[in-house]
Design a protein that fits this description.
The chain contains 7 helices and 10 strands. It is α/β, with parallel strands linked by helices. It has one domain: P-loop containing nucleotide triphosphate hydrolases (Rossmann fold, 3-Layer(aba) Sandwich). The strands form 2 sheets. It has a 6-stranded mixed β-sheet, sandwiched between helices. The structure holds adenosine-5'-triphosphate. Adenosine-5'-triphosphate (ATP) binds next to strand 2 and helix 1. Keywords: ATP-binding, Nucleotide-binding, Transport. This is ABC transporter ATP-binding protein. One of its GO terms (molecular function) is ATP binding.
């Protein structure tokens, strides 16, 4: 169906090709390639130290690879100047880490309102939208609490609301349930998957947990800094 004049709807939204990255003498990535399509939920699994977080950092434009390319919506992320890169991270990407990394001094509401205010919304508008998002993630009645007063699950759902409130195209989630029990983990994953599906947001999800990976559309496994061929699980 595609012709030379229309954009290629089958092109991946985000693609890493042959990435290498060393931390000192440790080669964290050794020729890793991976693709993420619009709206796709992709799980990246692999043993501890296999390079999952380093891959996520390269794809999210947080770290530059030593070699290889990262292409996002047709542009080479690994070659963008830092100013453009941080702008793009703010507008198009959301991130969630294992320990939500909410700002401890701010209430749950203000943590979620902050990215909207950084993008130019007034405090009042930002707080109204933040409240709606917290409600969506089942953090109701806790808006005025600070992160230290929230349960682990509530804090992670607040972190998800913060990552999604600006309507990013991609959410990068690095072990978002790693510190949670199985019930809280299920609630966090259900909230993430429902919201991402509704909004057409792609998710790159790093996890050790097969039950968490099962929420994804597809799984790739990293072994020693490279993606194992499909079907290889060792
Ligand atoms: N900042 C750093 N400095 C030095 N070595 C690092 C750094 N970050 C990662 N590494 C090393 O690079 C390798 C890959 O690390 P990475 O965190 O990407 O793996 P991972 O698969 O995410 O591991 P885990 O599941 O344990 O979080 C490991 O050997 C790690 O020790």
């Amino acid at each position: 169906m595609s012709n030379g004049d229309s954009p290629d709807s089958t092109a991946p939204l985000l693609a890493a090709r042959d990435l290498t990255k060393a931390h000192g003498r440790t080669e964290a990535l050794r020729g890793a390639s991976v693709e993420l399509r619009t709206g796709e939920i992709l799980a990246v699994t692999g043993a501890s130290g296999s390079g999952k977080s380093t891959l996520l950092h390269c794809l999210a434009g947080i770290v530059r690879p030593d070699a290889g390319s990262v292409t996002y919506a047709g542009q080479r992320l690994d070659q963008l100047p830092e100013k453009r890169l941080s702008e793009l991270r703010r507008t198009d990407f959301g991130v969630v880490f294992q320990f939500g990394q909410l700002i401890p001094e701010l209430t749950a509401l203000d943590n979620v309102a902050l990215p909207l205010m950084l993008a130019g919304s007034s405090r009042k508008d930002a707080q109204t939208r933040a409240g709606e998002w917290l409600e969506r993630f089942g953090v109701r009645g806790q808006e005025a609490l600070r992160p230290g007063e929230l349960s682990g699950g509530q804090a992670q759902r607040t972190a998800l609301a913060r990552a999604l409130v600006t309507g990013p195209k991609v959410v990068f989630a690095d072990e978002p349930t790693g510190a949670l029990d199985s019930l809280a983990s299920e609630q966090v994953m259900t909230a993430l998957v429902h919201t991402a599906r509704d909004a057409g947001t792609a998710v790159l999800l790093i996890t050790h947990d097969a039950q968490v990976a099962a929420y994804a559309d597809r799984e790739v496994r990293l072994t020693d800094g490279a993606v194992a061929p499909a079907g290889v699980t060792a």
